[in-house]
Write a structure and sequence with these properties.
InterPro entries: NAD(P)-bd_dom_sf, PRISE-like_Rossmann-fold
Largest sheet: 7 strands, parallel
CATH superfamily of the largest domain: NAD(P)-binding Rossmann-like Domain
Distance between the termini: 40 Å
Number of strands: 11
Organism: Swaminathania salitolerans
Domain PRISE-like Rossmann-fold: 61-352
Protein name: NAD dependent epimerase/dehydratase
Shape: globular
Strand order of the largest sheet: 3-2-1-4-5-6-10
Radius of gyration: 20 Å
Pfam family, one: PRISE
Strand content: 5-15%
Order of helices and strands: EHEEHEHEHHEEHHEEHEEHHHHHH
Structural class: alpha/beta
Length: 352
């Protein structure tokens, strides 16, 4: 099998590439910057918003499966809809033989149920657990725009499709715009090295309530399953680890991995973006002292996204029944997801 992964250098794309390579696939990895791709991935350098460049880059690429794992952020959701649907549409137009596609997988997320960034979790709280048959929310949402492009292309070219809706994705990728795991690793490292208190930055609802996350390896396995199993075709699926937890239970365990104490919860949101502001020089000193690979805090941490996730005023629990009944039974411990990531980051010298 030949796969084209759009966004192959990102958190989801990298882990999917590793999964498919392990399964014996030939993998083409499309990104604007292809540095750091796994060695066996065939690099395809192109900007999905540049049709001419994209057409040239894909002229000799004929995949059986296409996996779209990237997005771009604009100032408004209306602009997000235009740009992100265009990215997907441009890829279909640039492929020399889209009619030869067997399957296309699209990765979106829980903003399908919670709404876009500019109205995130606003209004009446959605009823949990989130289920795939919930209706679309009113208003613009670039996930809906992407789905519509996918459905139109599937009807035109005759391939099967799958939509994957993870919660917060935990896994190894540097420079990712939505990377809670690495952000918390950097935050905990700063706390240990400088004496800052390791305070949970989110809302009381997130601290006390049940929630879940998605390991990038779990998501990669889910995407591979949907592309190869009859039960995964022409369906939208939630995909999370399979366990649930409370942050007030997990937070001390994360602190323990770093050899620090978890600070008492302050009782209200205490944004991480503000806590990390002004810590750039401290991180440079830490990076120098421990010979770390990156001394630029902004290239490791994405506090804005972590604040958006942990600051939600609503409970977030995701139902996995549909996937399980269709044949996907894989399970992943969330505590293990974080600890495995921390092990990787330390081994590759991104954290001390």
């Amino acid at each position: 099998m030949r796969a084209l992964i759009v966004g192959a250098t990102g958190l989801v794309g990298r882990n999917l590439a590793s999964r498919l390579l392990a399964e014996g696939w030939t993998v083409y990895g499309l990104a604007r910057n292809v540095e750091g791709l796994p060695e066996q991935v065939v690099p395809v350098r192109a900007d999905t918003l540049d049709p001419g460049q994209l057409g040239t880059a894909l002229a000799d690429v004929a995949p059986h499966c296409l996996f779209f794992t990237t997005w771009t952020r604009k100032a408004t959701e209306a602009e997000n809809c235009i740009a992100n649907s265009a990215m997907l549409r441009n890829v279909f137009s640039a492929l020399p033989h889209p009619e030869r596609l067997v399957h296309v997988g699209l990765v979106t997320g829980l903003k399908h149920y919670l709404g876009p960034f500019e109205s995130y979790a606003a209004g009446a709280p959605p009823q949990t657990p989130f289920r795939e048959d919930m209706p679309r929310l009113p208003g613009e949402n670039f996930y809906y725009a992407q789905e519509d492009v996918l459905f139109e292309a599937a009807a035109r070219h005759g391939f099967s499709w799958s939509v994957h809706r993870p919660h917060t994705v935990i896994g190894h990728a540097i420079g990712n715009l939505m990377n809670m795991g690495t952000t918390l690793a950097v935050y905990a490292s700063l706390c240990r090295e400088t004496g800052l208190p390791f305070v949970f930055p989110g809302s009381a609802v997130q601290w006390n309530g049940l929630t879940d996350v998605t390991d990038a390896r779990q998501l990669a396995a889910h995407i591979h399953w949907a592309a190869t199993a009859p039960g995964g075709r022409n369906e939208a699926f939630n995909i999370v680890n399979g366990d649930v937890f409370r942050w007030k239970w997990l937070w001390p365990r994360l602190a323990s991995w770093f050899g620090i104490e978890a600070a008492p919860y302050p009782g209200a949101v205490s944004p991480l973006e503000a806590r990390l502001k002004g810590q750039e020089e401290a991180w440079r000193r830490i990076a120098k002292a421990h010979a770390l690979q990156l001394d630029d805090l902004s290239k490791l941490a994405s506090p804005w996204h972590t604040d958006a996730d942990l600051g939600r005023p609503v409970e977030c629990v995701t139902d996995m029944t549909k996937s399980r009944e269709a044949g996907f039974a894989r399970y992943q411990s969330t505590e293990r997801s974080f600890c495995d990531l921390f092990d990787q980051l330390r081994a590759s010298r991104y954290i001390p």
